[in-house]
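During the no-cost extension, the postdoctoral fellow (Dr. R.K.) reprocessed legacy sequence entries with the updated structure-token encoder. One reprocessed record is reproduced below for audit purposes.
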Amino acid sequence: MKVHTSEISLDTAGEVDVQDITDEVQRIVDESGIENGIAVIFCVGSTCAISTIEYEPGLKKDLPEALERLFPKGIRYHHEDTWHDGNGHSHVRATFLKPELTVPVVNGKLTLGTWQQIIFIELDVRRRHRRVVVQVLGL
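Re-encoded structure tokens follow.
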């Protein structure tokens, strides 16, 4: 088995900035030379997430609105008692969305649906510089 690790570097616009990273992940798979295996995509940080979506304007609006309905900013989060940084909701959102995604690699390509893209979601309340680690394992 072969393992190839690389990183994607991102600058975000702050809260619920959604970025399509599919092409960059596929580029890393291509660089790996691995034909069949898995790609693990992991965001480094406790206020970000990795997922899939149909990356289109409507869903780019729907996702932040849904997160606000599920995990609103205007309620009490005990995290604020410790740090007073205004991002308790960011941590809770990230916990539910998760920091990683595993995608099968078949014949050197990510196994994604026609309208399925890999996305990075910034959940913190401010702009951030982020690292996404992509590890490709297989043959």
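The radius of gyration is 16 Å. The mean pLDDT is 97. The remaining legacy entries will be reprocessed before the final report is submitted.
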